Amino acid sequence: MSSSQGSSLPYRGDIDGLRALAVMGIIAFHAFPGIFSNGYVGVDVFFVISGFLITSIILNQSLDDNFSILNFYGRRIKRIIPPSLLVLGTVILVGTFTLFSYEFSSLRSYIKPAVGFYVNFRLMEDVGYFTFQNSSKPLLHYWSLAVEEQFYIIWPLLFTAAYKWIEKKPANPVRTANRLSLIILVFLIPSLVYFINTQADSYFSGFARAWELLMGCLAATLYFLLNFPAGPSGRYLKYSGIMGITGFLLLAASLIADPKYATIFAICQFADRKYATIFAVTAAFFLVISSENSPGKYLLRLKAMKYLGLISFSLYLWHWPVLSMYQLFKLRVSNFEIIGLIVFIFLLSSLSYHMLEKPLKEMNWDLVSPNGKYNFKNFYPIAGCFLISIYFYSANFNKIPDMFINEHQIISDNELPINKTCTLANFENEEKYTSWCYSPNLIKAKQGLIIGDSQAHSLYRGMVKESESISWHLVASEECSPYPIPSIYAFCRRIIQETFDNLKLHPEIKFVVFVMANHKFIENQDTLLKTQVKNEIVSQLRLLAAGGKRIYLVRPIPEFPVSIADCTRQRFPFYKVFDNSENCKLDKKLWLKSSFGFYSFIDSLKSEIPNITVLDGTDITCDATECHAARLGKTIFNDTTHLSFEGSRQTSRQFLKAFEAASRQ
Predict the structure, then answer these.
(1) Which helix (H) or strand (E) covers residue 475, if one does?
(2) pTM (whole model) above 0.85
(3) CA distance 616 to 593
C-alpha cells in the first residue's frame, strides 16, 4: 500500500490514479461488501504497483552505480513505519477506553505481529479474510503491509545478488534487463502455482502473494526495455494504447468476477475468488507497463485521482480501524452512517498525509551520501522509529478497568459433568454427537428424556437444576433434528432412530421432550415430501405413545438478529451515543409469523396423537407484544438463539409444572 517513488524514477501521475482506484475499491468492499463484493482486488493492484516501483528504482540506481541497500531500507522506514505507528497507537488508545476486556485482549494479540510486520502469519492461524468475525479485528489490514515489508527486505538482496551475477563489462543495460526478466520468471511461476493450488493460507501467505509483487517487478524490467535508450519506440507507442485498454477491461472483469455471475462466465470459472485476483493482477501489469499518455488513461490522470493516489497509503491505514471499531460500537449501522464515516476517513487521511507523510517525504534519511560517506545524523530519526516500534512491540498494554464500563452482567453457564453412557446405547463413532450429552450425579433411574439439537442442550441444564422429583437424560447434538426426517447430517437420523428403538427397553422413562430450533428442516420441504415426513413422524410418535410415554413438543424460542452479549452492554464513554438496547427486543408478531409453518406442523401432530402436549418456549421470553433477550436485569439468552442458564431455569420452572402434574396421574 506504500508509495515507493524515488528521485531516480520520473513521476507518473497515472500510477497515482491507479492507486486511487485500488484504494477506493478496498474501501468500498469493506464499507458495502454486499454491493462491491470484489473491491478487495485493490490489494492485488497495490502489490503490482509496489513491485513495479521498487524494481524500477533499484534497477535505475544500480545501472547508475549508486544503489545503496542501507539507503533503500532507510527510505522504506521513513515512508511506512511512522504513519503505521500513528494509526496503531491511535487504535490502542481508543481501544483502551472503549473495548470490552475480551475485545481488547484480542486486539493486544495483534499488536506485536503488526509492529513486527508478521501479522499475516498470525492471521493464517485464524478465520479467513472474508468472514464476518473480521470486523472485530481493527488491525486486520496490516497483513498486506507485512507482506510488502517482507518483500522489501528480501527482494533488494536477491536483486543485488542477481545483478552482480549477470552484469558483465562493458555494461549492457538491455542484456541485464533481459536476464533479470528471466530470473524474475523463475521466482514468479512457483509462487503462482502455489497460489492457485493452495486453499487455507493463500490469502495471507507471503509466498502465495509473491507472484503478484513479482508481476510488478517483471513489468519494471519490461518497461525499462521498452523505453530504452531515450524514449519509447513507435511500435511501443502503438501497442501501449492496446495494453492500456486491455488493462482496463481486465480490471473491470475482475470487479464482476462474482459467484452470482458464474453462469455467464462459467468458462472462466469466475465463481472462484482466485480468478478475480489473477485478472486484477494482469490488469495492473498492463496498466503500469503502458505509457502514461496511452489512450484510456484519462481517468487516471485527473487531478482528483492523482491526489487520492498521493494519500492512498493514509486512506488504507485509517479506513479499516474506523469502519471496524464503529461497527463494534453500534450493531446496526445505516448506509447514511457509513457514508459519513467514509467522508471522515478521507478528511483524516488528508490531514495525516499533509501533517506527517509529506514532511517526512521531504526529509533526507539517506545513511550513505553520494561520495560513499556515512551520514550519522540521519541515523537518529531511523533509530527513533525503531525505538518506538520496540516499545509497541514489547509493551504490555492494559485497558481501563471494566469498572468504567456500563457492562450488563451476563450469568455464566454451569457445566454439568460429562457422562458418555447417557446415549441409551453404544453407538458407533460416539464422539461425533456426545459433546452435549450430560448427566447429573443422580442415583435413581432417569424418568425423562430430552432429545434434540443445541436448544435441547440449553433447556436440559435448567431442567436438571430445577427438577426435584424427575431426573433427566439427554440425547442432543448440534443441528440434529429430534424427528426422524431428512437431515444434512446422516448420523443425526441414525442417532434418533436408534434412540427411538432403545426407548422400548427403558420403561422407566415416562417423559420424552422434543426440542428443535431449526424449523427450516420441515418448512423447506416440498408438499409431497412434507406429507411423507409427517406420516413417518406420526408413526414413530404413535409407537412411543402406545408404549406409555408422555410426549412433549416444544415450540422454538425466538431467534434474535444480533448478538445478545453485545446488545445488553454499553461502552464507556459512549453510553447514549451507541445505545444498542433496542436490539435486545423482537416483535412477537413477526416472530410468530416467521415460525407459523413449524408451529402449525407441531399443532397438527398433537391433533393426531394421544398423550401429546405442546409447550410454548416463548411464554418466558415474550410478553404480549415483544420478545426480550434480557429482563429484570438478567439475560435470558446467551447468544442469538440459545437460552442462558438463567433463561433455561425460568423456562424449566414453567415446563416442570406440566411434567409433575402428569407424574401424579
Answers:
(1) strand 472-476
(2) no
(3) 15
